[in-house]
């Protein structure tokens, strides 16, 4: 049984805005919630390399190819910081990766949609990274030190990702009629899945209250989704693009954009593994894991030999 005095002192630290570090006392449930959320976040970054990675060999110019390569590499880096941060909670990397490969762990629903044209790369940068920044700027203030610090760096890189995406969106939106059609089509396909990234409505979100009490989240799923809509509707209109939502309307009283209902059946279908690309994404990760076996073996052997050498010296 955890000492209730320790738990009260923990909550007081959170309420004062203090940061919790790996060796500090934390309730088991806080640890478990963070392992769940941070490992899912790490998986999302790694699986998130696949939809855009699909276009690296077909980028329309050398400049675009360099930008896309570096963006996809950044995402690998984000996954690595986040796996390392999850390990500070006592979770083994092997275990969390096995959970992903066995289909037990979740990762963001957004990466289970196909990238059908080059315009999808632009729209992912603008909308998906735009959504990630809104969520992760909040997480950069989260109560768990290693997660918050990883988020600060990740958000800086995501800002560059969003800018390159929006620049491309703007270019295509003022391009030839075919380019305009391509970019609008990509917005039509990615808008609703991006709104789903923020998770279920607050009333249907079992984890939010606890995460907010512990200072992991400071805003609810619906609050973040609204900030996303407000910002991105303006950005779409600036470049002459339409948002595919007949219920979208500016509300003078609240100063926010009202928007239509998300298709929650589609959301849960994708989260449960039955979206358009779930199987392909997991198969691609399994294949990469199998092909990387020799690298893991070599790294383990190197570490074993280094340890032996150090033991001989001391
Ligand atoms: N997709 O109680 P709730 C990126 C699950 S990648 C799948 O509201 P919570 C990028 C949820 O896990 C950035 N599952 O949960 C990379 C829970 O199930 P479990 C991705 C979802 O934790 C490459 C259940 O539904 N960002 O930026 O309070 C290229 C009930 O939900 C989703 C992160 O990972 C979903 N969309 O809130 C470009 C951010 N939504 O676990 C860009 C970190 C909900 O109880 N995570 N579920 O079985 C979070 O902020 C939060 O965990 C969530 C969910 C907002 C996602």
Explained architecture:
- Pfam families: PaaA_PaaC.
- With 314 residues, this protein is mainly α.
- 68% of the residues lie in helices and 2% in strands.
- It contains 13 helices and two strands, in the order H-H-H-H-H-H-H-H-H-H-E-E-H-H-H.
- The two termini are 41 Å apart.
- The structure holds benzoyl coenzyme A.
- Benzoyl coenzyme A binds next to helix 2, helix 6 and helix 9.
Features:
binds benzoyl coenzyme A; PaaA_PaaC; Aromatic_CoA_ox/epox; oxidoreductase; mainly alpha; 1,2-phenylacetyl-CoA epoxidase subunit A; 68% helix; 314 residues; phenylacetyl-CoA 1,2-epoxidase activity; globular
The residue fraction in helices comes out at 55-70%
Give the strand order of the largest sheet, numbering strands 1, 2, ... along the chain: 1-2
Bound compounds, each kind once, are: benzoyl coenzyme A
Instruction: Give the N-to-C terminal Cα separation.
Output: 41 Å
- Measured by DSSP, the beta-strand proportion falls in under 5%
What does the radius of gyration come to?
21 Å
- How many strand units? 2
Element pattern in H and E:
HHHHHHHHHHEEHHH
The helix-and-strand class reads mainly alpha
Number of helices: 13
List unreliable stretches of 5+ residues: none
Main sheet: strands, sense, barrel: 2 strands, antiparallel
Which descriptor suits the 3D outline?
Answer: globular
Q: What is the overall pLDDT average?
A: 97
